[in-house]
Write a structure and sequence with these properties.
With about 150 residues, the protein is mainly α. It is built from 7 helices and no strands.
Length: about 150
């Protein structure tokens, strides 16, 4: 099991299911070696794996699976023009709207911050009560007000 050694070398982790599968293969190979020295798991398994792959990837099965998804594909093709036109309308609506100013609210935030800091300074320096209460109230008003 070279891949497990490589994974440990590069600190990779396998899903639990894969670790259990490797453990089962190692056990299977060990028991095979005890019962029949020279037992080659790969050679025995290759025939079964080839059959599974041929069954899974047979043209008949692939065609059957493709036909099973055909109604969804037809439905998507029928709805495609409507989805495209709706997408174009949405892009047109978005392009007609005036872009929002990137600094739209910065003025109110700066004024609110300045009033808040000034109010704290007035409070800690024992400034007049009316001054710091007014500054705190202005900070709240500027913070909650929507900027143009």
């Amino acid at each position: 099991m070279v891949s497990v050694g490589r994974a440990a070398q590069f600190r990779l982790y396998f899903p639990v299911e894969m670790v259990l599968m490797v453990k089962a293969l190692v056990t299977f190979e060990g028991v095979g070696q005890i019962l029949k020295p020279g037992f080659d798991v790969a050679a025995v398994s290759q025939r079964h794996v080839r059959g599974i792959f041929l069954d899974q990837l047979s043209p008949l099965r692939v065609a059957r699976e493709g036909l099973r998804g055909a109604p969804d594909l037809v439905d998507a093709l029928v709805k495609a023009p409507m989805l495209v036109s709706e997408g174009v309308r949405m892009i047109e609506r978005a392009s007609r709207q005036a872009p929002e100013h990137p600094f739209a609210g910065i003025r109110g935030a700066l004024l609110a911050g300045a009033c808040l800091v000034s109010g704290v300074l007035a409070l800690v320096t024992d400034g007049p009560r009316a001054l710091w209460v007014t500054l705190f109230a202005l900070a709240v008003v500027f913070a909650l007000r929507k900027s143009p």
